[in-house]
Design brief:
Strand 8 and strand 9 form a beta hairpin. This protein has one domain. The strands form three sheets. The protein has a seven-stranded antiparallel sheet, with no helix packed on it. A two-stranded antiparallel sheet has the order 7-10. The chain has a two-stranded antiparallel ribbon with strand order 8-9. The protein has about 160 residues and is mainly beta. About 0% of the residues lie in helices and about 50% in strands.
């Protein structure tokens, strides 16, 4: 809702009904290994919020199934982490189910200094995120809502705490 100063004010409006199932588990087989996972399935997600013609309904932005997994191994000054997310198709973004994994390694040299290497999008998944709001503009009268995500990329660095 526009405010008088030219900025916007967010307000709650109408109603939303949601029902689903959420599962979460953590397993620590040894002091060095920790595995966590979650999964959510929405059976019903409906709003009564009025939308402008040609604008997706609020529930169309959200996938009805999503989950994540984290596998962490810590030994001495080393930490290795594999994490991933799974997202089913959303009505606004018909691209099928996507699974994206990341890998990270950290060496804790001292309490103040650590070195790290990250690989984001480990398997080079070609996927898009949803551009919310009015999207990214229009092409041939169609609103572009697909925000391309990066392919595999690497990052290395260090962190020093004062």
């Amino acid at each position: 809702m526009p405010a008088t100063s030219g900025s916007f004010l967010t307000v709650n409006a109408d109603e939303q009904t949601t029902s689903g199932l959420e599962l979460e588990a953590t397993w620590q087989p040894t002091s060095e290994w920790r595995i966590s996972a979650n999964y959510t399935h929405l059976f019903k997600n409906r709003t009564s919020f009025p939308v402008a013609a040609g604008t997706p309904r609020p529930e169309d932005w959200l996938a009805n199934r999503f989950g994540s997994i984290i596998v962490n191994y810590q030994r001495g000054k080393w930490n290795f982490n594999l994490n991933g997310t799974l997202r089913a198709e959303a009505k606004v973004l018909p691209q099928g189910t996507t699974a994206v994994f990341n890998l990270m390694s950290t060496y804790h040299h001292s309490p103040a200094l650590e070195f790290f290497v990250n690989i984001k999008n480990l398997f080079d998944e070609d996927y898009n995120a949803i551009a919310t709001g009015s999207g990214l503009g229009s092409v041939n009268g169609e609103v572009m809502r697909e925000l391309p995500r990066r392919g595999r990329w690497f990052r290395a660095g260090f962190k020093y705490s004062f």
